[in-house]
């Protein structure tokens, strides 16, 4: 105990001094703790209990409607999800990789031809990861996997404006197991065909 | 008598300056010996709170004959207690606590002990936010709790995937990611009013919000231009600017002076931590030798340290000096480190079976304690500062 060795002789000297002056006792003070709620930086913020959030308001608008190279997401609003149509064409990835394997080409060709044969349909690509990566790293990795398929489909002649990407990171595993078999299934892009909303 | 008093003051000053010096020396290394204290008179909840708070701030509980400091008192009908320096034969603290709850009173006493012994502001009454998932994966909600996990309150009702809460410094307000609108979007949520709004709801990925120390800016990850990169906007979402253009950028964190953003990226086929001026500029790569696959950096409030997660098969919490050429130290198994306001304690999540639990770590002594669990799997803790 390094600190003790150095401080101890001083403490002894101090104790000797105090012995001659009498040990000083601080009087008992009382601290009043206001409210139930702890301190968050500014002690002025003390509302008691935290109000629960209001239900989600669908009219909350983002400050921007996209506008970058990704298609405006409002163009996909209200479309009807058809997860069964392309369920057989889910593609899988190597560990910590967003590179499309050559062996997935047939699946991508099938997805491309579904979109080409039904020009009113669009596509949602959901990128997923196994649990062997940190949360936010995987959220970016899932997006890179979805974007990689979007690029591959563009090369196969599908307009990228018809494609929306969504990363689930490691939060939506296809298989909740914790072995290589589950991890292999969880490193994927799933393709969800989007049909025009009713009446369009 | 006057002479004696002067001598006492001189000795006190000398003692104090020696102790200060030793503390500074110790903070440059890990694996320090904790400060030995003995606890008497407290039972149940009061004792539990004192042991938790002091363990994660560098104290250890020993028999009275091995202790440097004696903590005695009672938690019957309210907390009151004294702190005595056994070597100096001097009572440093004598105080009783009134109001709120017994837990809060005990946390306040722990804070006073930390102040008296270490001359640091205690963390006993601080808050955390985190993500809780009932089934370890899938939909979850954002929660706020005391830093030890007690008193957890759910603050979202989205029934959707949520992620990465971040506090606005000094305010009862959070930014976090929610998939409530069918897409990962970043929300600003005032905990005082309960009102919230989307601040980043662009096409693609909107996640990993990190608030600048002055609360005026938010760094985040967006993929609107076709690849996930770091962007910065004003607190209300306006004034958006792309900061990085790397291939695999994630997890921004601010330097406490607000001048730099540290983030995880890839360089020459290797995962690296890097920093870039907050307004954009040249990327500088940090030396993370010995800690492969670094992600999730979190810059300490005093600016000295960067905590992060290294992946070597398993996940490990590491800490490295923010400046200079010092290399990382691997501390414990876990992910998602977030600094306490005291710049010595971290909260993180670690595996317990196939669930994640929150744990609080004193980096200099490597002592840690598990938090009370809210529900299911708890992860991505953020410490209010």
Characterise the protein shown here.
- The complex is a heterodimer of chains A (200) and B (385).
- Chain A has helices spanning 2-21, 105-117, 135-155, 180-186; strands spanning 29-32, 80-82, 91-92, 122-128, 163-169, 188-195.
- In chain A, strands 2, 3, 4, 5 and 6 form a 5-stranded mixed sheet that branches.
- Chain A has a domain at 74-195: 60s Ribosomal Protein L30, Chain: A (2-Layer Sandwich), CATH 3.30.1330.
- With 200 residues, chain A is an alpha+beta fold.
- Chain B is mainly beta.
- Chain B has 2 domains: 30-118, Rossmann fold (3-Layer(aba) Sandwich), CATH 3.40.50.11830; 127-383, Neuraminidase.
- In chain B, 14% of the residues lie in helices and 44% in strands.
- Chain B has 3 helices and 29 strands.
- In chain B, the strands form 7 sheets. In chain B, strands 2-1-3-4-5 form a 5-stranded mixed sheet, with helices on one face. In chain B, strands 8-7-6-29 form a 4-stranded antiparallel sheet, with no helix packed on it.
- In chain B, strand 11 (185-190) and strand 12 form a beta hairpin.
- Classes of the chains: A alpha+beta (200), B mainly beta (385).
- Chains A and B meet through helix 1, strand 1, helix 3 and strand 5 of A and helix 1, strand 5, helix 3, strand 8 and strand 9 of B.
| N→C terminal distance of chain B | 46 Å
Strand segment tally of chain A:
6
Number of DSSP helices of chain B? 3
Largest sheet of chain A: 5 strands, mixed
Number of contiguous helices of chain A:
4
Helix-strand makeup class of chain B:
mainly beta
- The CATH homologous superfamily of the largest domain in chain B is termed TolB, C-terminal domain
What is the CATH domain class of the largest domain in chain B? Mainly Beta
- Computed over alpha carbons, the radius of gyration of chain A is 30 Å
Tell me which CATH architecture of the largest domain in chain B applies here. 6 Propeller
How many domains, in number, for the residues of chain B?
A: 2
Please write the CATH class name of the domain at 74-195 in chain A.
Alpha Beta
Q: How many beta strands in the DSSP annotation of chain B? A: 29
CATH superfamily of the domain at 74-195 in chain A: OmpA-like domain
CATH topology type of the largest domain in chain B: Neuraminidase
End-to-end span of chain A in angstroms?
Answer: 77 Å
Shape of chain A: extended
Rg for CA atoms of chain B: 22 Å
Given as residue ranges, the uncertain stretches of chain A (5+ residues, pLDDT < 50) are: 1-24, 36-48, 54-68
Q: What is the CATH architecture annotation of the domain at 74-195 in chain A?
A: 2-Layer Sandwich
